[in-house]
Amino acid sequence: MFARASGIAAAVVADIVFGDPRRGHPVALFGSAAAGVERRTYADTRGAGVVHTASLLAAVGVAGVLAERAGRRRGAVAEAASVAAATFVAAGGTTLCRTGEQMAALLRGGDLDGARALLPSLCGRDPSALDAPGLARAALESIAENTSDAQIGPLVWAAAGGTPAVLVYRAANTLDAMIGSRSPRYARFGWAAARFDDLLNLVPARLTGLLVVACAPVVGGSPAAAWRAWRRDAGDHPSPNAGVAEASFAGALGVRLGGPTQYAHELEIRPTLGDGRAPDVDDLVRAVRLSRAVQGLAAALAVSAACRSGRRASARWSGPFRPRRSRLRRRPELSPGVAP
């Protein structure tokens, strides 16, 4: 478990320094492989989607187990490297915040075309239908939701289950982004991917809400307002997890999120989250700062949790019930003809 803790810490540092790889990202490679499998397995039924999702996630899980065991056989450093590599691949918090900062800079400079071109890097909304306030709101909501999905989730699952757990989490999250929408093509085929992703994010989303409450003063916000918006408004959101992150962010920032939300396949009328005014570019900058604070606190908690798990595991083998070698030495075998 100490190897797991050091691996998580190394992954967090690597994410801060490097961000997501621009080429050959393993998540993108998995997405390409999943798309290839989909061409052979697609059928407009839930059953086909269950088989598709379960097969891909099982393959990733087995690969993760094998990688972690191989690292463990080579020693603590190799095991930590396995956890670090998997967590780094799964985490995307630094790139999320950098993209949010780029969006804010484009909006401040009045470059709406550039902002619309950048928006698909944050969310799946139709940017052509959005003006500057709409782009700011879409980016802020994406920062809030993806603080949980792109960073808190990987940290939680890395601390809880190491390499296989964090890889399965990221694969499930990727499948949800690919086929979990309610579009006509994926309403049934993507059902399993969407529901499984919801399940994996139940704990990370609520941890995100708690951390937003704790970090609200970093952006001049009120912990009480963040808590109130979460408890009152999150349940109205169509997602059981995104609503927690978005509502708590809205309360902490003192803004109002939700409303008409245009996707490529449909227009959704989202519920109102928070009590304040509509967000602007300055609020987007504050949201990025809040996300960084939440990510930093989550990283510290994940490392601490992994260390405590390691201490508990060690205690089980060093406590009063630890198996001990007998103090009686085995009597040596006597050679034939030799007197005792």
Automatic annotation (TrEMBL):
Primary residence: membrane
GO biological process per UniProt: cobalamin biosynthetic process
Entry keywords, A to Z: Cell membrane, Cobalamin biosynthesis, Ligase, Membrane, Transmembrane, Transmembrane helix
Localization in the cell: Cell membrane
Region annotated Disordered, chain positions: 314-340
GO cellular component terms, A-Z: plasma membrane
Pathways per UniProt: Cofactor biosynthesis; adenosylcobalamin biosynthesis
Topology with respect to the bilayer: Multi-pass membrane protein
InterPro entries: Cobalamin_biosynth_CobD/CbiB
Record keyword Transmembrane helix present: yes
An MF annotation (GO) of this entry: ligase activity
Known function: Converts cobyric acid to cobinamide by the addition of aminopropanol on the F carboxylic group.
HAMAP family (UniProt xref): CobD_CbiB
PANTHER family, per the entry: COBALAMIN BIOSYNTHESIS PROTEIN CBIB
Family the UniProt entry places it in: Belongs to the CobD/CbiB family.
Protein's UniProt name: Cobalamin biosynthesis protein CobD
Organism per entry: Mycolicibacterium gilvum (strain DSM 45189 / LMG 24558 / Spyr1) (Mycobacterium gilvum)
